[in-house]
Design goal:
With 174 residues, the protein is mostly helical. Helix content is 71%, strand content 0%. Helix 4 (40-54) packs antiparallel against helix 8.
Length: 174
């Protein structure tokens, strides 16, 4: 990756490492260079963490993804960015799919519920569907994390193989 790109778009590791509030909470875990490096292990792990956290139905998914990336020593910006797979536009269809998958796994009938953003709705309607909904969310999150990390590792490997072949061809030409 060009140094110009890294310098422009990647956060400064020293600023993160020396941030007082982050240091108080995460301690020496912030000193790991994998948090900002782009290598096969760090990026594929970030895909796993970010995609899993995208399907965790709680507010502040980005904070959970950051904590997961720091704990599992994966690329922090990629893990946090991937949480936006479930953004305000995509969240309703994704979570409805998760709910339907959960009902299918539990072999329960799908309840047709009108969504209303209120405390009353959360207390009454969500209490009826929370088990299939959470099961579906964790199933889809786990599968997407495994598939995402595997695809990234495979693509990374194919890129390296292609790069080695190109280098051999250049050497043979010379």
């Amino acid at each position: 990756m060009p140094k110009k790109f890294i310098k422009r778009y990647m956060p400064d590791h020293n600023k993160i490492r020396n941030h007082p509030q982050l240091n108080r909470f995460f301690g020496t875990l912030l000193h790991d260079p994998n948090l900002l490096h782009l290598n096969r292990r760090s990026v594929s792990g970030a895909f796993a963490v970010g995609l899993f956290m995208a399907f965790v139905p709680v507010p502040f998914q980005m904070l959970l993804a950051a904590a997961g990336a720091i704990y599992f020593r994966t690329n922090l910006p990629i893990a946090v960015g991937l949480v936006w797979v479930s953004n305000p536009v995509t969240m309703p269809p994704l979570f409805y799919f998760c709910y339907k998958l959960g009902t299918w796994i539990l072999q329960e009938p799908v309840q047709h519920i009108q969504f209303v953003l209120s405390i009353d709705w959360l207390m009454t309607e969500l209490a009826e569907i929370w088990q299939p909904f959470l099961l579906g969310c964790f199933t889809v999150g786990g599968l997407s994390a495994i598939i995402g990390a595997t695809v990234i590792r495979l693509l990374w490997r194919l890129h390296i193989i292609h790069h080695i072949k190109q280098r051999r061809l250049r050497k043979e030409k010379d």
